[in-house]
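Action item from last meeting closed. Structure (439 res):
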């Protein structure tokens, strides 16, 4: 297990150096080519768990250290070990011994001779003092919720009745939700297929069901043949709200990885253009479409520019714009610690360039669905309100949750709401939807 600790510590160290976990974990794994699949899996779990509960773990470690550690690799290893002692099922004695051994294996450069004794002393002190240290967290919200204080304060202000639920849900493991391709089978038939293979699942609504126990995609019946796709229940709402009809010219802007692109095409035979500024991400979109046996015109381009546009207006535009991703932190646990409050303004400025650009490409009478995976008002209805002030030809169409989505958790009134703000829940992530019509 100490190999897993070393891999996780390296990944966590890289995250706090500013690299996202999607990149840092593979880089850390590459340092240990002889690691077994079990060790690699454990390392991933430790990396995600440590970052998920970093606020709590760091509060413990800060009190245990007489002064800050100058070696950030040892600091990261202690974070991983304390996560194990708090949240893992591993034997405490084993965790401590493995961490002491792991610190002796650190490289680049070799650790000082005192490192083993320090790690041993800190972890054993943690085990002895855990309860008394926890008692000091009563007024430490970062330790209680494992989010930055600015994030907690913003949710308190914007969701005074729901902020604690939003924070807690963001710290649980995300569900694995499937979208059934109704062109190939029905939800009922697919549930029967799962049952015959002893795979338990729960129907959520519309085309969505969640596996009671997550599984690798290659083990999911029908996945490789496009019978089902992996897509969050909240994300599946996009294609329903866009409501593209057969023959429509549709643009999916910022389309990667292509989940919403495929869903729109499954629901209607449209002329789909899928745009993204990243060539590698477009390859993933193409791969998803190939699996689903669907076709779209894939273009590399900037949604905030028009140099890729052929001047043929679109009937429907799906604007899934870049955002803080504050609604999907349980899937991307590093976001909480990499984001800064100032990043919200950076994203809103980017969104404010994309929306007017795409609006020029929308046909008169056409509709644009503005989407984020954020829960922050500034990126959501606040952004839409600013856009409406400057565009007299735009009207926000009131939204109601379509049939099949009544079980989602939304903020505010569901009936005749201007927009739909989904808050993270046990069954889905956090998303914002607003529908604009051109007149």
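Sequence:
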């Amino acid at each position: 297990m100490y190999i897993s600790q070393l891999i996780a510590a390296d990944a966590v160290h890289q995250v706090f150096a500013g690299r996202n976990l999607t990149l840092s974990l593979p880089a850390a794994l590459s340092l240990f080519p002889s690691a077994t699949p079990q060790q690699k899996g454990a390392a991933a779990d430790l990396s995600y768990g440590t970052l998920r509960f970093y606020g709590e773990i760091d509060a413990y470690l800060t009190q245990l250290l007489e002064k800050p550690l100058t070696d950030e690799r040892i600091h990261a290893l202690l974070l991983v070990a304390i996560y194990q002692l708090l949240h893992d099922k591993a034997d405490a004695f084993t965790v401590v011994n493995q961490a002491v051994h792991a610190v002796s294996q650190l490289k680049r450069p070799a650790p000082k001779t005192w490192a083993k004794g320090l790690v041993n002393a800190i972890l054993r002190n943690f085990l002895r003092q855990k309860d008394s240290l926890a008692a000091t967290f009563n007024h430490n919200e970062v330790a209680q919720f494992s989010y930055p204080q600015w994030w907690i304060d913003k949710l308190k202000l914007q969701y005074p009745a729901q902020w604690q639920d939003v924070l807690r849900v963001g710290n649980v493991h995300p569900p694995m939700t499937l979208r059934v391709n109704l062109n190939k089978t029905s939800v009922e038939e697919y549930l029967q297929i799962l049952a015959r293979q002893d795979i338990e699942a729960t129907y959520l609504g519309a085309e969505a069901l969640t596996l009671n126990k997550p599984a690798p995609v290659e083990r999911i019946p029908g996945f490789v043949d496009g019978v089902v796709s992996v897509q969050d229940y909240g994300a599946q709402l996009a294609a329903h709200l866009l409501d593209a009809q057969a023959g429509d010219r549709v643009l999916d802007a910022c389309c990667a990885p292509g989940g919403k692109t495929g869903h729109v095409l499954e629901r209607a035979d449209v002329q789909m253009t899928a745009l993204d500024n990243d060539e590698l991400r477009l390859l993933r979109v193409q791969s998803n479409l190939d699996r689903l046996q669907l076709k779209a015109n894939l273009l590399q381009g900037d949604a905030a520019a028009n140099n890729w546009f052929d001047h043929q207006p679109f009937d429907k535009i799906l604007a899934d714009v870049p955002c803080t991703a504050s609604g999907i932190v349980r899937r991307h646990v590093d976001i909480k610690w990499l984001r800064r409050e100032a990043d919200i303004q950076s994203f809103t400025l980017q969104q404010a360039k994309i929306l007017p650009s795409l609006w020029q490409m929308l046909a008169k009478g056409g509709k644009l669905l503005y989407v984020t995976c954020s829960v922050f008002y500034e990126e959501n209805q606040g952004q839409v309100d600013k856009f409406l002030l400057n565009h007299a030809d735009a009207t926000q169409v009131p939204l109601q949750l379509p049939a099949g989505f009544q079980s989602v958790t939304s903020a505010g009134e569901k009936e005749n709401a201007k927009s739909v703000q989904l808050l993270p829940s046990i069954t889905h992530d956090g998303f914002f939807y607003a529908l604009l019509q051109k007149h």
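Note appended to the action item: The two ends are 62 Å apart (CA to CA).
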